[in-house]
Amino acid sequence: MAQVDLHVHSKYSNHPSEWFLQRLGASESYTEPETIYKLARKRGMDLVTVTDHNRIKASLELVKKHPQHCFSGVESTAYFPEDNCKVHILIYGLDREQFSKIQKKRLNIYKLRDYLKQQDLPCIVAHATYSVNGKLRLEHLEKLILLFNNFEGRNGSRSTLHNDVLSRVLLGLTAADIERLQRKHLIEPWGAEPWKKALTGGSDDHAGFFIGKTSTQAEAKTPDEFLQQLRLGQTQPQGRQNDFQGLTFAIYKIAFDFSQHKSTAFASSTISDLSGYLFNENKKLGIRDRLRLNKMKSQKNNAIYQNIVKLIETSRTLNEDDIDARLELLYDCISDISDQYFRSLLTSLNTNIEEMDIIQIIQGLSSSIPGIFLSIPFFSAFKHMFGERELIQSFERKWGKQVSPQPKRILWLTDTLTDLNGVSMTLQTVGKLAEEKGHDIHIMASLSPEQQTDIPSSTLVVPPLYSFQLPHYEDLDINVPSVLHMLKQIYTFNPDEIYISTPGPVGILGLLIGRMLGTEIKGIYHTDFTMESEAIIAEPAISNMIEQYSRWFFNQVDTLLVPSSEYIQLLKQRGYRYRHMERFKRGLRTEHFKPQRWSQPASSQRPKLLYVGRISKDKNLDFLLQVYLRLHDLYPGISLTFAGEGPYLQSLQDQCRHLAEVRFLGRVAYADLPQLYNQHDLFVFPSVTDTFGMAVLEAQACGLPALVSNVGGPKEIVVDGGSGYVLPVDDVQSWVERISLMVEDFSLAGGLWQKLGQSARDHILSNYSWDVILKQMVAPDHQDDCLQHRHRHQSSLKRILKLASNMMVH
Prior knowledge:
By secondary structure, this protein is an alpha/beta fold. It has four domains: 2-242, Metal-dependent hydrolases (TIM Barrel); 246-383, no CATH class; 405-587 and 780-796, Glycogen Phosphorylase B (Rossmann fold, 3-Layer(aba) Sandwich); 609-770, Rossmann fold (3-Layer(aba) Sandwich), CATH 3.40.50. It is 47% helix and 14% strand. It is built from 31 helices and 24 strands. Helix 27 links the parallel strand 22 (682-685) and strand 23. Helix 16 runs parallel beside helix 19 (483-493). The protein starts with a strand and ends with a helix.
């Protein structure tokens, strides 16, 4: 039994497909052919070949030098003449004359296939689902199935997404499938049984790291016997598959090799110098190196230096072939180093913007370039891993034999999880209920250790690299997540859909990563930040800036989920993409939020009023105070309780200092809210900026009649006259009259109050069950409607990456 790595590149492959290396001006590989031979043999390969892009020199060199172990090979770039789509075909056992003819015929894949068939040359479609020049479509894959019988089922530079789906589909083909394809494309298939496809494996190594880690197994002892087994399709792929960390590792290695061959800014950089220790295990530390290392070790407060020391010292203790350990070391150290650069930048910007120090701002931006340089290859590799996600999924849906689709894996991103607001409470409820019901829904947030209390155990926590407070939202900490740690966690989870609740740092980074992942992104319009800013700040320029940013952010998602029908129309008028909006119905744990008593009120009892929510001017609390003051004059002893925190708390407390029946509870733990609702009789919520009103939902579930304004989302929760009242937002008299009606009802045993409360509870039970909502969320899609919305976002992603690369290179 022979093992061969059938896909390896040498220094003669000189044009990289990876754009980061293109920007550097590097070649695709710097590995010597003889190095390939030695490494392959050392790692257990019985036979060796080299498959450079449209070059045969390296493989012929090895055949001449090691004829008993080597055979020729080439990775030929072929074209579909109808649209110039590129594909790569691995060809073996060819001589110079055949190679010369292949070079001409490869411009037309149909002529190339016929020539290979005529010459009986073993050939394999390499990484069939990878689009070499961005033109690969489903019809090309179908044509390849007809044209060839051997496919690379395990490419060592691709992820399981590419390899596993392709292998499943190919091994499940039937004679009927081939007949359908032949009628559709009018292409004569290869061989007597073209539905029987053979799979091979190769590392597709360019950096010299993964040679022999992925291979093909066949019954053979000599090169000729192995080539015959390829012709017969008697092969089995085996070995490692790649992830974005492995690809990044290879990119860094090629960049390092490039720096050793050409004098560039990268060659003289500290990063290149450090790479020498990471990638060249035989390099010894000289006196100068040891002095530099000791100097860095002595600076304990310099996080960048300490990570560099860790990278150098630990890398030299690892086994040369322990690739996974080296990948983990590289990723952890570079993540921390990159974070430190960005942390310094953000700290500098925060200080210098306040002081309007333009020179320092520019210097701070310049100092962050090393952090960008370190991060970009990871993003590039991440996108590379998922570049054809939509195509692969369509390919499997059409030709795969999967009987029942699997439930979705959902990642829900938020910038607020532990604060007392509707978004946080909703997400904590979703996370905990998903755990109980076994749904694969994970909340992701950037949290400090102090913030990681009482959160769902399945929460994916990203460490923050910087925190700040927004003006007028001083009680709300905004965390900037560690970029590369977040990237790794999302890659590991590999969600089918991404939900984004907030347009903050976590949300914007999630949007970028989601685009690279190629998955559907759903944004949720929880909060109208524009209206909030208008009420709080009263600065039109700031409100306009917030509106422009919010509109841009939410217009980037594939689907915008909006809590109420009114807000869908409102956002349409404000320029949001209307046709991609859907109603987002939120739910409640009705077994937790429930009435604890339906006792008849005493005739002398006054209804106790309650407000729960953020204490902020945009919640229309000055209006509520006016209503209460009128009621206080009419009904001495009537009480009003405020539960919550916010920037307007102190001012409101000052206004109520003389009102003994007004209480301020501050922040109330989520678990204590049901008891709080049940200790009161009427819920009053005059806000005009809430897109939904989670507190209204909670109060209604506990059997409290609710009074809400006729502007915003809460009015769609309350059944006017049935479970409460929807009242004019600026009409104090209307609010006073309705509450007065409830006061009179209490004096008559509270029959109306009880009727409204029971109707409120029944309405919530019938319409706001999280169990039903979550089941619908994770249910697999049966159509491809969501896929067509994503293509327009790819150009913006490319522009972002291109801008970053230009900053790095220049």
